[in-house]
Design brief:
single chain, alpha+beta, Jelly Rolls, 2 domains
């Protein structure tokens, strides 16, 4: 289980990871927001540690979640904004109830609420930052159930989704698969568009696991490279694409503690029509 770890181990790694971001081209996007989040939860945690009030139920509530912060694992801290702020929301509420009023407490209040600046991201449902879906509603959604066409990134093969104000992405742990799921009773045709990026120069190949066809192959570099795979038929149920690299995962020179292979960014599924025959599509 990656949800829990030794006291402060994952919390410390999150600080290291955030510091490493400032050495990359993502610094202006996720770096500042990650710092705001970490400063906010630290300020909240300190209130419960430094001002114990055992008889106050609000303090006991906040202290419970302050203790939880200590043992949260990498799966909760990973990415931007990550799940930590949602998990620790009761601590935030108790912090704002218990913090004394007055001029001398204003700085503490501001520090403890810095995460409000990224609250619109915090409250977005988890998982939806991995892909975007476009096309006619009747083709995208099964009205009776509300299920939609989707892309699924298996957690054991991909790190948690991350995003900035303008981009979203997942880093792979090595060779990895993406599952495209069509809940309709009929096939749909889509253009699948995404960017690829790696921390080093490596060859990347995208394969259809249905028939082994090569959908795209090329080198990923530090500059984003766009991939467009047109005319993909998504039959009812699941189809799998496999992303294979010619090199093993490596730890980026930026200081990121993770070993990563490549990232898939800004994935879009653009449904163009109803399908009538199976085909894998062509890449451009």
């Amino acid at each position: 289980m990656r949800n829990f770890d030794w006291p402060f181990a994952a919390y410390a790694r999150k600080w290291v990871e955030t510091a490493a971001v400032f050495k990359t081209d993502d610094a202006g996007s996720i770096g500042v927001w990650s710092v705001l989040m970490l400063v906010a939860v630290t300020a909240q945690w300190l209130l419960f540690v430094l001002r114990p009030r055992w008889s106050d139920p609000w303090w006991r509530l906040g202290a419970t979640y302050a203790a939880l912060l200590v043992v949260l694992g990498d799966a909760v801290w990973e990415g931007y904004p990550g799940a930590a702020l949602r998990v620790l929301l009761p601590m935030t509420l108790a912090f704002n109830v218990l913090l004394p009023r007055g001029r001398q407490w204003r700085a503490w209040f501001v520090l403890g609420n810095l995460a409000v600046l990224c609250s619109s991201d915090i409250l977005k449902p988890p998982g939806q930052e991995s892909f975007q879906l476009e096309g006619a509603r009747a083709l995208r959604i099964v009205e009776a159930s509300g299920r939609t066409v989707e892309a699924i990134f298996p957690d054991e093969q991909w790190f948690q989704a991350e995003r900035s104000r303008f981009d979203y992405w997942r880093w792979s742990r090595g060779d990895a698969e993406v599952v495209f799921r069509n809940p309709q009773e009929f096939p749909v045709v889509a253009d699948v568009v995404f960017d690829v990026k790696s921390a080093d120069d490596r060859k990347l190949t995208v394969l259809s696991k249905t028939d082994g066809a090569v959908l795209w192959t090329g080198a990923t570099v530090k500059v984003l490279q766009e991939v467009r795979i047109r005319g993909v038929v998504l039959p009812p149920g699941d189809i799998l694409w496999r992303f294979e690299s010619d090199q093993s995962p490596e730890q980026p020179s930026s200081g990121d503690p993770r070993k990563v292979s490549f990232s898939v960014r800004n994935l879009e599924i653009r449904i163009t029509g109803r399908g009538v025959a199976e085909k894998t599509g062509t890449a451009k």
